[in-house]
Amino acid sequence: LQRVEKLWETIDQLYLEFAKRAAPFNNWMDGAMEDLQDMFIVHSIEEIQSLITAHDQFKATLPEADKERMATMGIHSEILKIAQTYGIKLSGINPYTNLSPQDISTKWDTVKHLVPLRDQMLQEEVARQQANERLRRQFAAQANIIGPWIQTKMEEISHVSVDIAGSLEEQMNSLKQYEQNIINYKSNIDKLEGDHQLSQESLIFDNKHTNYTMEHIRVGWEQLLTTIARTINEVENQILTRDAKGISQEQLNEFRASFNHFDRKRNGMMDPDDFRACLISMGYDLGEVEFARIMTLVDPNNTGVVTFQAFIDFMTRETAETDTAEQVMASFKILASDKNYITVDELRRELPPEQAEYCISRMTRYIGPDCPQGALDYISFSSALYGESDL
């Protein structure tokens, strides 16, 4: 009886030892299963490599864990061996734990099953991140060429538009070549759009290999198309203005040189202060009222800037007015036989009666040495006349 009691004490101690070792091992397996099934979201090769490193470190602990499992299961085997040897009937219940050897075995098998599945998931993610990295590099390689190309073309077109070395026709030919080059370059934009679409489908939203995004490229491309179209239109208008008003290429070059000098921001526009300085440098005597009137002509929409086309239109009108007044004076000088005054008789002799009487009634008396009685001042008349009559 004492021997049986001693055996039961031994079995009880083994039950307690099993419980002490099974509980923490069971907790470890619960944590391991949770980690092995943990969902992950990564965005780079570096991040997935970090997970793989952690998984490899976990796998390195498995041999030690297996030793602990075998030691724990060995305690249970010892209990069974004692019971079988001495014919002791066990109740099958460990009074110190609800964990059974079967629980331990089942969970261990689950852990061993989950490890290769985790390996597979991580390797699949590595492949995905490597593919994403290829897409990033592919997009960046193109974007890092296209972005600067667009900027360079913008600067070159701007330079052509302000160049005074050649004629307007030469500017137009150069701009048309740029336009054709831009049209031909469109295929590169389309290819980049395709790569961008692949990146979006792969949920790639960052790219450390380039500072350009597709949105940046699109905006730059649209600005380039707008700039070349606007610049061509401006040069076409300048050609039409030149031909319609009879302005020489030299005059246009002078206008362009003046504009370029006062275009301090080098953006093809002058602000009001620069425009005022430009006019003053060209000999204009500007009060506030007069300058405000001129600004309504060159900037009717109150944009706050004066474009080169508006500047050309204004200077063309000014030049045309000066030429017309001078032409009227020159005509009267011929009628007056090169004198600085004209007589009533000369007007009536050289002009139709109605025009002669119109001039006689409006010309003031000429004051000067050795001039005959009734001499008229055609110079002041011509200046006052321009803009009031087509005469």
Write a short abstract of this structure.
By secondary structure, this protein is mostly helical.
Describe the structure.
The protein is mainly alpha-helical and 391 residues long. Helix content is 75%, strand content 2%. The strands form two sheets. It has a two-stranded antiparallel ribbon. It holds the Pfam family EF-hand_7. Residues 168-195 form a coiled coil. Keywords: Actin-binding, Calcium, Coiled coil, Metal-binding, Repeat. Residues 250-285, 286-321 form the EF-hand domain.
Number of E strands: 4
Low-confidence spans: pLDDT under 50, at least 5 residues?
Answer: 387-391
Q: What are the secondary-structure elements, in order, as H or E?
A: HHHHHHHEHHEHHHEEH
User: What is the averaged pLDDT score?
Assistant: 91
Number of helices: 13
- Strand line-up across the major sheet: 1-2
The structural class is mainly alpha
Question: How much beta, percentage-wise?
Answer: under 5%
Distance between the termini: 149 Å
Shape descriptor: rod-shaped
Summarize the amount of helix as a percent range.
over 70%
Largest sheet: 2 strands, antiparallel
Give the radius of gyration.
Answer: 48 Å
Coiled coil: 168-195
Protein name: Alpha-actinin-3-like
Domain EF-hand: 250-285, 286-321
GO molecular function: actin binding; calcium ion binding
